[in-house]
Amino acid sequence: MSFLRQAASKWRFLAPALSLLAPSQYEIDPAAACNALREIDLSSISAIILNATYYENATEVETLGVCTPIAQISEPLCRVQFVVNTSSVSAVTAEAWLPTSWSGRFLALGNGGLGGCIDYINLDYGSSLEFASIASNNGHDGNSGVLFANNSEILEDFTSRAIHVETAVGKELVAAYYERRPRRSYYMGCSTGGRQGMYAALHYPSDFDGVLAGAPVTNFNHLMGWSGMITKYLGAPHGDKSANFIPSHLWDLVSEEIFRQCDGLDGVIDGIITEPDACDFVPETLLCEGRSNENCLSKVQVEALRKVYSPLYGLGGDHLFPRFDPGAENASFGKWALFSGKPFAYTEDWMKYVVLNDSSYDFSQFGLADVARMQAIDPENISTFDGDLSAFRARGGKIITYHGRADNLVPSGNAKSLYNLISRTLGLQPSTLDEFYRLFLVPGMEHCIGGKGAVNFGQRKSIGSSRLQHIDEKQTKLKESSQENFQVPGTQPSNVLLSLVDWVENGRAPDTIIGISDDGKTTREHCRYPWKSQWDGNRWMCAKEAIGAQTGQSLHSD
Ligand SMILES: *[C@@H]1O[C@H](CO)[C@@H](O)[C@H](O)[C@H]1NC(C)=O
Ligand SMILES: *[C@@H]1O[C@H](CO)[C@@H](O)[C@H](O)[C@H]1NC(C)=O
Ligand SMILES: *[C@@H]1O[C@H](CO)[C@@H](O)[C@H](O)[C@H]1NC(C)=O
Ligand SMILES: *[C@@H]1O[C@H](CO)[C@@H](O)[C@H](O)[C@H]1NC(C)=O
Ligand SMILES: *[C@@H]1O[C@H](CO)[C@@H](O)[C@H](O)[C@H]1NC(C)=O
Ligand SMILES: *[C@@H]1O[C@H](CO)[C@@H](O)[C@H](O)[C@H]1NC(C)=O
Ligand SMILES: *[C@@H]1O[C@H](CO)[C@@H](O)[C@H](O)[C@H]1NC(C)=O
Ligand SMILES: [Ca+2]
């Protein structure tokens, strides 16, 4: 096997100086080198190796943890499983997938929700793209907050420590296996993973050269508060016994009415509301007005909708969180998370196991005072709503962030708020901020993936369609995968992870990101905020002018 010789030839391509290394270094047998990692002593960094196994061929393997039983390995690699003690009462379990064909790059991966789940799909994706890839369980297994109760160490792993620890140990493993440290280090994650990436850039600015942060759940306490308030407006915890509750067949009606009022605002009736902030949804058109019709809403239900589609303000009238994006109500993933008449599970867990340490907490008491309380405590600095990226910027770090505009779990307004916070904090106007931080808003995309828009742009491994990815997360077997599935003649969707690499390593920043729809039929350029996606009669373009303006200046002619 030409293990390190192969790696070396890539190195030579990318970094000519390394061809000076002695040839003998390239003659190591990868399987033997992998087995040797079992004996490596990492006790000085509180880590132990559980196992190290070389996989010569694509295969399915059993996983660690409780989230998914089987993972796919697509390329030859050394799989290392390890545990790092982060305190006497907490530990992070992690895996490093070290591909035989290595680009010299390191990729750390994040988590989702309140998890707890090693991101096996992207370990496979990253290693297939020749990154030495690391993912952890974020300090606890599963996707609930129960273990946070009375244990600020496990909570700290989740809020701020696990990514830093997996990265530190991961880089040591890379050095041991390839006999050199990674040339460049990247991070990729979405949702909680997006927040973790932002946290790393803020607090560990030298961990990564590039961060890809999708739908980051920054301003976390207010997000938990907002989610809790939305469920309250809609009847939680009393479900269909509450007059505010809106049953699913009426949500279909609400969604239809929103699209009737707002789909065409962008000039194209396509089931996508390009700019939800331009949608001034008037729910009163759905009022029954005394009719005893099944297909209409009571005054109380319409009032609930008014609150859902308005921003959240605090007890003192201060703006806490943006509104639910009109059009996102029809998203398929997590569709009833906020509409079921039950408390949002993460908000309830956050109150019970973090804010109060009281598993008997009664959610019917939840209100704005609790939102203020969460924020005042800001448990282990979870908020991650800080615009001071100056240290990361000074090191030359780059951040790409993206957010779907039909995201029913985290409003896309949160990404705008963060962008504007950073701009304000650093005193940089967008054209200067864009030198290291770019936000791409993705019309018609749900939470991280999925939806009617051009939602695939390399933000994670594509498995035929992102619908299948949702199914895969629900523990079915992984399917054969290929990025090439998504290429249609004449248009190449972007790979946003490799765009980040190109930006960091070659200084070529992506002006736009091209996505392709789940059915493979539509591509569309996604614009970086504050540019607007605008239909010029023939095609979508990115324009500086407000949507609906007659003369948009094209991004490319800027
Ligand atoms: C981690 O903690 C466990 C349990 O406290 C202990 O058995 C183990 O030796 C520790 N590992 C390291 C590397 O310190
Ligand atoms: C290490 O992994 C291999 C392959 O899955 C397995 O056969 C072996 O039992 C594992 N060893 C330990 C100590 O878990
Ligand atoms: C890997 O695949 C090759 C070609 O099919 C086969 O010869 C080899 O035995 C396989 N290796 C393992 C470890 O299964
Ligand atoms: C909950 O437990 C954590 C960890 O022990 C502690 O820091 C916090 O003060 C506790 N909160 C309350 C309200 O008791
Ligand atoms: C909502 O989603 C369903 C299922 O995907 C679809 O059939 C329906 O047309 C959508 N409604 C609107 C208004 O887009
Ligand atoms: C946290 O500890 C307190 C004091 O020991 C206890 O009353 C409470 O039940 C614990 N909370 C949880 C959720 O275990
Ligand atoms: C949270 O932030 C405060 C204030 O900056 C700092 O003193 C503390 O160490 C931080 N905690 C963690 C877990 O990072
Ligand atoms: Ca439209």
How would you sum up this structure, described in words?
This protein has 558 residues and is an alpha/beta fold. The chain has 3 domains: 3-182, no CATH class; 222-261 and 277-364, no CATH class; 384-558, no CATH class. The protein has helices at 3-14, 30-36, 120-128, 152-178, 192-203, 220-233, 248-262, 299-308, 345-355, 368-377, 390-394, 413-426, 430-433, 466-473, 496-506; strands at residues 47-55, 59-62, 70-73, 77-87, 90-99, 105-109, 131-136, 184-190, 210-214, 312-313, 319-321, 398-404, 437-442, 512-516, 523-527, 532-535, 540-543. The strands form 5 sheets. It has a 9-stranded mixed sheet with strand order 1-4-5-7-6-8-9-12-13, with helices on both faces. Strands 2-3 form a two-stranded antiparallel ribbon. A hairpin with a 7-residue loop joins strand 2 and strand 3. It is globular, with a radius of gyration of 24 Å. The N and C termini lie far apart (50 Å). The structure holds 2-acetamido-2-deoxy-beta-D-glucopyranose (7 copies) and calcium ion. Residues 150, 152, 356-357 line the site of one 2-acetamido-2-deoxy-beta-D-glucopyranose (NAG). Belongs to the tannase family.
